[in-house]
Amino acid sequence: MIWCEDHGALAYLQGKENLVVTTEWPEAGDLVELEFEVQAGLRHARFVCLAAGNQRSELPGLLREMGEKPDQTRPLLRVISNPEGEMLERPLKLAAAR
Predict the structure, then answer these.
(1) Which one-letter DSSP state was computed for residue 17?
(2) Lesser CB count within 10 Å: N end or C end of the chain?
(3) Could you give the C-alpha distances from 60 to 10, 26, 45, 63, in angstroms and in order?
């Protein structure tokens, strides 16, 4: 399965016949260029090739970490209300807190 930059449906790669270079099967985290075809509501990857110099093998781990609970040591934003008497049209002030 390939996550597409347009954030649309995933594209499915089935078989080496859909690769430009049949010996270069993409690994998790690799950036690829492709064309796709929609059949029965599914995107099928066609003419898939690795993007030169853009291997990101750490990408799967980064995505998993993003889904985990936030680290409590990282700064968080909190809203500080506007003092009374200020115009209501002004945006709320934000402050970083640990």
Answers:
(1) G
(2) C
(3) 15, 13, 20, 5
Distance of alpha carbon 72 from the chain centroid = 23
- Name residues whose C-beta falls within 8 Å of residue 31's C-beta, 6 or more positions apart in sequence: 50, 51, 54, 55, 56
pTM of the entire structure? 0.55
pLDDT digits (tens, 9 = 90+) for 16-54: 999 999 998 988 778 889 999 999 999 999 999 988 766
Q: Are 39 and 7 in contact (CB under 8 A)?
A: no
In angstroms, the Cα distances linking 16 to 5, 21, 47, 69 are 22, 8, 10, 38
11: number of Cβ within 10 Å: 22
**How far is the C-alpha of 73 from the C-alpha of 31, rounded, in Å?**
32
How many beta carbons lie within 10 A of that of residue 36, not counting itself?
Answer: 22
Q: Tell me, what's the pLDDT at 57?
A: 66
DSSP H helices in the chain: 59-67
